[in-house]
Write a structure and sequence with these properties.
This protein is an alpha+beta fold. The chain is built from four helices and four strands; from the N terminus they run βαββαβαα. The protein has one domain: 2-Layer Sandwich (Alpha-Beta Plaits). It has a four-stranded antiparallel β-sheet with strand order 2-3-1-4, sandwiched between helices.
Length: 129
């Protein structure tokens, strides 16, 4: 499975419970399509660079996950039709440097790395010593 970062902006008019329900909905969609959520970083309410649908602010959420490539189109389709999501962006991490940075982002967001990544790091550390 490939590593992805999904950033989406939720309408600012929703309550805290509705915002959490939207985040849980995205997490369940990722799991339903065969993915694994590694970490969620709710960045909070922020001012947008320009108004989107007359909203000057938005609630930013970043979800770090590993998913099959075929599931990304379905996840984005669901986000596109969700009227509470103002914008979304999916970033794919494939190169060695990108994956190292991805692991740091997951650690900073409060998630944990998967076992295969940790095993590879331990092997490389023992081979260097």
């Amino acid at each position: 499975m490939t590593s992805y970062e999904l950033l989406f902006v939720i309408k600012p008019t929703l309550t805290d419970e509705e915002i959490q329900a939207q985040i849980d909905s995205v997490k369940s969609d990722i799991a339903a399509f065969g993915g694994e959520v590694l970490a969620v970083d709710a960045m909070g309410m922020r001012k947008l660079a320009y108004e989107i649908n007359k909203n000057p602010r938005g609630y930013y959420v970043v979800v770090y996950h590993k998913s099959p490539a075929s599931s990304i189109a379905e996840i984005e389709r669901k986000l596109r039709y969700n009227e509470n999501v103002l914008r979304f962006l999916t970033i794919k991490y494939t190169k060695k440097k990108e994956l190292a940075h991805f692991d740091k982002l997951v650690a900073n967001a409060g998630g944990s790395k998967d076992e295969s990544t940790e095993a590879k790091e331990e092997e490389s550390a023992t081979s260097e010593a």
